[in-house]
Predict the 3D structure of the following.
Amino acid sequence: MIRKLQSTDTEQVMQIWLNGNEDAHPFIPKEYWESNFEMVKEQILQTQVFVCEISGKVQGFIGIVDGYIAGIFVDKNHRSLGIGKQLLDCAKSRYRALSLGVYRKNHRAVAFYLREGFSVLSEQFDEATGETEYTMVWKSVL
């Protein structure tokens, strides 16, 4: 079930965020994500976040700020089951256009967004991580 984030979901969401970043970005030191943990935890409560809850446990979430997808994260044990697509479809149903940033080396995420109708608008160098990041966009055809 997709629903809005509740403050009681924060710990589960943050664990999924940390584990997901470490799994998806082995080319970035784990310390980078750990050092940003508290800042992201504060920001999450100020962002529009939807979670996918299964059997009373959060299995994934999407964060959106004014049509910008701050991230989609799915628990490692529940990936490739359609949760990410459900979360993205939730965002698509609320916005006529979406954008996001994704690291070029995160091949799995890039392929997912391309498959879901996003295109690469530009690429830029992220000084904080030393990695190249794509800006991807999607627009509703309706």
